[in-house]
Amino acid sequence: MRILVTGGAGFLGSSLVEFLVEHGHDVIVLDNLWRGQKDNLEAVSGDITFIEADACSPTSYQHIVEPSTIDLVYHFAAVNGTKWFHEEPRLVMDVNLNSTLQSLEFAEKNNCRYVFASSPEAFGESEIMPLGADESAVFTAAHHHQRHAYGASKYLGELAVHHAARKGLDVRIVRPFNGYGPRLLGDAYGQVVSMMIQSALKKGVIRVHGDGSQTRSLTYIDDLVRGIVFAGTFDDLSGMSFNLGSDEEISMLNLAERIGQLVEEQTGQSINIQFESGHPGDSKRRLPHLMEAETHLQWKAQISLDEGLLQTLRAMV
Fold it and tell me: Which DSSP category does 53 fall into?
C-alpha cells in the first residue's frame, strides 16, 4: 500500500512508520518537525518520502507526488502535552482542528481510506468507566480551565470524520490510551512515563501530582502500533472507533514507585518521590472500553507494564 502519515516524525507516528516500512509499504511522512524529530526516522530501515511541511496548510499536500495513488492516510499530526493545553490553548485548537480538516479534505479528494488518531480526552471529564463506548462527552464551563482545548479539538475531529463517513469516505477512529515507550518526549511538555523516568535519571526525583491516587491505563507503543495498523488495514470497518489500551489500571503514585524501583535497580541511584499540585481538569480515572477492538480487530494489549517500563528505561539510559 502507499500510505501517508501526518505527524510521522513524532513518538507514535514514527513508530507506526517504522512498522509499515518493515512490512513493505511505501510511506510518505508529512511533518513540520515542531515537536516531531527527524532522528526518529533514521532508525527506519527502508525508503521513506519525507516532506517537511505543516499538515494544517492545504499547500503542503501539493508536495505529494501522484496523490491519487495514496491508499491510506493515518492522521497523527497534533499538539499534545498537558502544559500546552493550559499555556497555548488556541495553538492546540488551531493545529489539531485545521490539520484534521486539511488531511481529511485530502483523503476525500483522493478517495483514501482515513484513520484519525483521536484520544480518550475527547470524552472530557466523563466518569463512566470503562471509557469510550457510546457515552456523552462531558466538558466543564470554559472559564474553569484550558485543558479541554485538546479534548474538545479531538471531539470536533471525530465529528468531522463521521461527517466524511456519511458522505461515503472509508474512515476509522483510534483512541490510544496513554501510550509510552522509546521516543516519547520526557521534557516538561511531554507525557507522564517519560517525564518520570527522565526526572529520575537526571535529578533523582519523581514528581507526582496531587496525592497520586488518579489512575491511568498505560499502553506500550508496540501494542498501540499493532492495533493502529489493524484499524487501517482491515476491511469493512468504516465509521468505527477503537479504544486501544491496557485493561490494567495503575495509580500515578504506584507508577512513580515502580519507576523509582526500576531506576534504582538499573543504575544504583537513589530516587525520591515528591508531591506537587496538578493541572486543573486532570482525569481521576481512565480505563478503556475494549469490546470493539477485541471483537473487530482481534486486538488486546500483550506487553506487561513492568516489561514496557524496563524497555523504555533502557532506551533512555
Answer: -
Nearest-CA neighbor of 190 among 27, 37, 22, 5?
Answer: 37
Q: How far apart are the first and last CA of the chain?
A: 36
**Would the pTM count as exceeding 0.90?**
yes
179: nearest Cα among 317, 312, 21:
312
Task: Give the β-pairing of 171-176 and 113-117.
Answer: parallel
**260 to 4, 266, 307: CA distances (angstroms):** 39, 10, 15
**Euclidean distance between CA atoms 179 and 223, whole angstroms:** 9
CATH architecture of 2-179+219-247+281-302: 3-Layer(aba) Sandwich (3.40)
Query: For each of the chain's 317 residues, which pLDDT tens digit applies?
Result: 999 999 999 999 999 999 999 999 999 999 999 989 999 998 787 889 999 999 999 999 999 999 999 999 999 999 988 888 899 999 999 999 999 999 999 999 999 999 999 999 999 999 999 999 999 999 999 999 999 999 999 999 999 999 999 999 999 999 999 999 999 988 888 889 999 999 999 999 999 999 999 999 999 999 999 999 999 999 999 999 999 999 999 999 999 999 999 999 999 999 999 999 888 888 899 999 999 999 999 999 999 999 999 999 999 98
β-pairing, 215-216 vs 250-251, is antiparallel
Q: Quote the CA–CA distance of 200 and 110 in Å, as a whole number.
A: 47
Buried b (16+ CB within 10 A) or exposed e, 156-171: bbbebbeebbeeebbb
Strands 171-176 and 240-244: parallel
- Stated as kind and residue range, the H or E segment containing 151 is helix 148-166
E strands, the chain, are: 2-6, 26-31, 48-52, 72-75, 113-117, 171-176, 179-180, 205-209, 215-216, 219-220, 240-244, 250-251, 272-276
